[in-house]
Amino acid sequence: MPWLLSLLLISYNVIKTTIQSQKGPLPPYKNHTISLEDRALLDAIVWPKPPAPTSLNQTSDPVHSLFAILPSKGGRERRVGDQLEALVQMQDFQGRPKHYGGDFLVARLHSPKLGAGVAGTVVDHLNGSYSALFPLLWEGPAQVTITMVHSSEAVAVLQRLREQRSDRFFFRSLFRSGKLSENTVCNMCLPHNRPQEPLCNYTDLHTGEPWYCMKPKRLSCDTRINHFKGGYKKDLVTNKEALLFQRSGAEPCFILHL
Ligand SMILES: *[C@@H]1O[C@H](CO)[C@@H](O)[C@H](O)[C@H]1NC(C)=O
Ligand SMILES: *[C@@H]1O[C@H](CO)[C@@H](O)[C@H](O)[C@H]1NC(C)=O
Ligand SMILES: *[C@@H]1O[C@H](CO)[C@@H](O)[C@H](O)[C@H]1NC(C)=O
Ligand SMILES: *[C@@H]1O[C@H](CO)[C@@H](O)[C@H](O)[C@H]1NC(C)=O
């Protein structure tokens, strides 16, 4: 994402200092510090969430949204090396302006005739409006395309899946001893719906990286011989949430010829 990239570059030269938060001996993986640099990187990928659940007709709709190229400074003709700024006002399916940010927009300035193109930097003003900034790198015609990849409401669903459903991809391991072999499901966290079942805990004592497998019925945890991908879970979003992904897509939503 272009605007993430620029944030990451800005945060790169932060002086490295550490934040000590806990006292007393800790297991090795808990005794590590977050540098300001790490913190800045984490802050840079924070994504604003919609303030409250909304009905589908209150979610961002590229078709109803507005888009304008701002006039050049002093009204003079644009030259190579200038910056072009476009303003986007996102609106919902009922044509009402959005008042919060978080829509995932990508902006592109291109010339199909010349085969030239450049990505724009999208700035989220967090009030439903966005600026897209482009460097003007060539002479002649250019066309601006701004695409809504996902509405802020759809991003919130993706965020929820990332944070709460780390089991959406699952793995398996084979356990073998003599003639017996079994394979079981493995993941970073194991089924909330089967809390009583015994687990094998392979959490890395050094890094703290969690890893569990369901314990095989007849074999012990130390007979694990491999690790493979088991598959992924479908139907993790509700039917209503699924509609958020049908409506957005890779289709360009605004095209303007300069
Ligand atoms: C963390 O580890 C360092 C050595 O690696 C040690 O000197 C320090 O006391 C430990 N801190 C805590 C809070 O356990
Ligand atoms: C918008 O959605 C809500 C809830 O689904 C519904 O009650 C309302 O009638 C809808 N409004 C329009 C104009 O479609
Ligand atoms: C949204 O924020 C931008 C930047 O702060 C500001 O220029 C613009 O007027 C605001 N728009 C609305 C509708 O408040
Ligand atoms: C697994 O082992 C780690 C490291 O010893 C421990 O912190 C964690 O609580 C264990 N998990 C369970 C579910 O017992």
Automatic annotation (TrEMBL):
<protein>
    <recommendedName>
        <fullName>NXPE family member 3</fullName>
    </recommendedName>
</protein>
<dbReference type="InterPro" id="IPR026845">
    <property type="entry name" value="NXPH/NXPE"/>
</dbReference>
<dbReference type="InterPro" id="IPR014756">
    <property type="entry name" value="Ig_E-set"/>
</dbReference>
<dbReference type="GO" id="GO:0007399">
    <property type="term" value="P:nervous system development"/>
</dbReference>
<feature type="signal peptide">
    <location>
        <begin position="1"/>
        <end position="19"/>
    </location>
</feature>
<dbReference type="Pfam" id="PF06312">
    <property type="entry name" value="Neurexophilin"/>
</dbReference>
<keyword id="KW-0732">Signal</keyword>
